[in-house]
Write a structure and sequence with these properties.
alpha/beta, single chain
């Protein structure tokens, strides 16, 4: 049954008609596993047809997922990777051996399952997750790395039976949905832990680790925490001077990756050579981390999606490796629920804050931003042309960021000013 999906544009039109949490907030979320579970049962439970590694965390989960995928791929396994949100193209969310899902596969999914899609009314993220499960099953992947969207316990990815689960970090983010203490958020992240299945805990506070430990013990799930496994991590490390390897994102998440590979080695053995090669390939592709990138070939302008206090702290460390923070101008777009006194305090080190208000329901207004950052200026002064803006800032160190959803706008600007 092909329904009304004649081409890929029809697929995108359908997706764009579904409210997205990233833009709309909790009104576009569904905190129950029943819809995705019922939908996938009708699909034949594709999520059970491949091995998986399930990754949650406040920060670092995207980096950890990509590092793991790179290693498994270098080891010769057909490797799926599901991440969110996408930066510029919806197909980025689904890759097999580093290649985006082809448009014809997405069209086929929507054509073959149009009746199911219409009758079940999944959220944007639930439907995307079902696509990932279906695609990885169709491609007969040996292993898929799955990144949670929000929290873990009630996240649509949480119907899988993974080889290992990973909780990269726990911080105060999405407090309106996950709880306003580290322990409460840790409990939501720990919801991905499965009975008798190893769990790796990365850079987490002691209070969060204790909560994770209690959940793991109750499920007889072996827990390997980075804090407690330094000797094992050293034994697993294939390269010398590991503390100096790669970007800050790589250094922070590398121990979790090594422990996860160790935990899954019974099902998918990986050699030291594959680990070293896989991490080197990842580092070449993302020299400063998965979300940090230079966005203009001539001007010293960069993008990073740091959208909470902890992530902004990591970004500042990365920027310091290039130049002192007082030399940086921060062009920010941010969601209302991300704007906190602690986040605003982290901004004090920048020389100038320019604010761009995105056209989303969740986006903070310039008035709200100025309550937290009194010196914030509007990104583009009234009457200032793109050419004038470029001339004013082309020699300045500029970091654009604050939200993944800002990237599409920034990329469009970069295309518009390519010849200026």
């Amino acid at each position: 049954m092909s329904g009304h999906y004649r081409n890929y544009k029809d697929v995108l039109h359908k997706l764009e008609s579904i409210p997205m949490f990233g833009r709309q907030g909790k009104s576009a979320a569904n905190f129950s596993l029943e819809p995705i579970r019922n939908f996938c049962e009708k699909l034949g439970n594709p999520q059970n047809k491949f091995r998986s590694v399930h990754v949650a965390g406040t920060n670092g989960k995207g980096t950890t997922c990509r590092m793991l995928a790179s290693v498994y791929q270098e080891a010769g396994y057909r490797t799926g990777l599901y991440t969110s949100p996408h930066l510029a193209d919806y197909r980025e969310r689904f890759t097999v051996n580093s290649k985006w899902i082809p448009k014809q596969y997405l069209l086929r999914f929507f054509q073959e399952h149009s009746g199911l899609i219409e009758s079940h009314k999944l959220t944007y993220f639930e439907l995307s997750t079902a696509v990932a499960y279906w695609y990885f099953s169709e491609m007969e992947t040996d292993v898929a790395i799955l990144e949670t969207g929000l929290g873990g316990r009630l996240d649509a990815t949480n119907i899988v039976k993974p080889m290992v689960t990973v909780i990269t970090s726990v911080g105060l983010d999405h407090t309106d949905l996950l709880g306003d203490t580290v322990e409460m958020i840790a409990a939501e992240k720990a919801g991905i832990i499965k009975p008798n299945t190893p769990v790796v805990a990365g850079q987490v506070p002691e209070a969060a680790l204790e909560k994770i430990r209690r959940v793991a013990d109750s499920l007889n799930a072996p827990l390997l925490s980075v804090a407690d496994q330094k000797k094992l991590i050293d034994e697993l490390e294939p390269a010398p001077n590991k503390s100096e390897i790669g970007s800050l994102a790589a250094r922070l998440n590398r121990p979790s990756v090594l422990l996860a590979l160790h935990c899954s080695s019974g099902s998918l053995p990986v050699s030291n050579k594959a680990i070293e090669s896989g991490l080197a390939v990842w580092q070449k592709r993302y020299p400063a981390g998965a979300a940090f990138r230079k966005i203009h070939p001539l001007y010293p302008w960069y993008f990073d999606a740091a959208h909470n206090t902890e992530a902004l702290g990591v970004l500042k460390q990365q920027l310091r490796e290039i130049a002192p923070l007082k030399r940086w101008i921060y062009v920010m777009a941010i969601m209302n629920d991300k704007l906190t006194p602690a986040f605003a305090e982290e901004l004090d080190d920048f020389s100038q804050i320019l604010y761009y208000q995105m056209d989303f329901k969740r986006a903070a207004s310039i008035g709200k931003v100025r309550q937290f950052v009194p010196g914030a200026e509007e990104f583009q002064s009234k009457g200032m042309s793109e050419k004038e803006w470029v001339q004013k800032y082309k020699s300045e160190l500029v970091i654009f960021g604050g939200s993944f959803y800002f990237y599409e706008t920034v990329e469009r600007w970069m295309e518009n000013i390519a010849d200026l």
